[in-house]
Amino acid sequence: MKSRLTGLALSALALSASLASAQDYPAQPITLVNPYAAGGSADLIARTLAEGMTERLGQPVVVENRPGAATAIAATYVAQSDPDGYTLLIASSPTHFITPEIQPVQYEGLADFAPVAMIANVPNVLVVGSGAELSTLEELVAKAKESPDTLAFASVGNGSLPHLSSVLLMQETDTQMVHIPYGGAAPAVVDVLAGNVDLAFLNLPPLLPHIESGALVPLGVAAPERTPLLPDVATMAELGLGEFQMSTWFGVSAPANTPEDVVAKLDAAIADTLQDEELRQRLEASGVMMFYKPTDEFAGFLESESERLLKLLDAADVPRN
After folding, report:
1. Cα torsion at 249, 252, 256, 260 (round to 10°)?
2. Which spans in the chain are helix H?
């Protein structure tokens, strides 16, 4: 009986300490780890979010860039950090599903994280070069059907969202095209502009200046709604391809077992930040669209998105680890 009472007392003390910790949170600066290099959309999102969260939480939220290994360096670091809410990850499809499937990593893509909130997405836009003499999706599909495996599409690597977007396009239109992977968006765009490849599904920001100049022709946006930066370009769904959504989304995740009260405080700070009109306008001007989902919805999204993207990896014949 004495042993049992001692155990209950220890459990009560642990619970009390946990509650006190959650009530006092945050008591020190928070690190928001970005798995991408400085200067891109993820970095803009992270720094804008950190600015708003700092104001709302009363502690500095510091962005730390840890690029490399297709996001695995940053994801591993956060997954192995203390689950106290002071080390967070800018989450994306590669951190949670794609990279753990196609290369060896030291973490579990879903099990080792606590979802906090989805924050934004960057539309992927289907483009062709102006010299391709294709001005609509219908014309592209007709040409692909007429001459299978002659049109080539660029991506930023095997298993990347631009790759899987084109795989989904081929599935939805019953066409076959040739995949040409590149080491990043910049060389892919260069070759579409030069006519060395016919098309690409890439993030909007690096495409926008070339679309505005007329060098690239946008055929469709793979997002839930049109982007304000291309108001005249229809979504893939509007073009008859059902719920064709392959945007590059970003969220915030914490290490698994982070206290629920801490996660709730973080979620509330993120939600309030994303209501800030000045911050929203700053992000939207760069091609980023707000796409907030609270903790529970974000967790459900991760489960369904994982299933969807793993099926596309199978269809793309991407080697698994």
Report:
1. -120
2. 2-24, 41-57, 72-79, 93, 99-102, 137-146, 161-173, 185-194, 204-213, 260-273, 277-284, 295-315
- For the chain, give the percent of residues with pLDDT over 90: 76
Kindly tell me if the per-residue pLDDT of 321 is higher than 90. Answer: no
Domains and CATH numbers, the chain: 29-122+248-315 (3.40.190.150), 124-221 (3.40.190.10)
The b/e string for 109-127 (b: 16+ C-beta within 10 A; e otherwise) is: bbebbbbbbbbbbbbbbbb
Element (H, E) at 179: strand 178-181
- Measure the CA–CA gap between 48 and 280, rounded to whole angstroms: 9
- Spatial distance between the Cα atoms of 86 and 242, rounded to a whole number of angstroms: 41
Q: Model's pTM, two decimal places?
A: 0.87
Q: What is the mean pLDDT of residues 236-244?
A: 90
CB 199 within 8 A of CB 135: no
Residue of 114, 94, 90 whose CA lies nearest to 30: 90
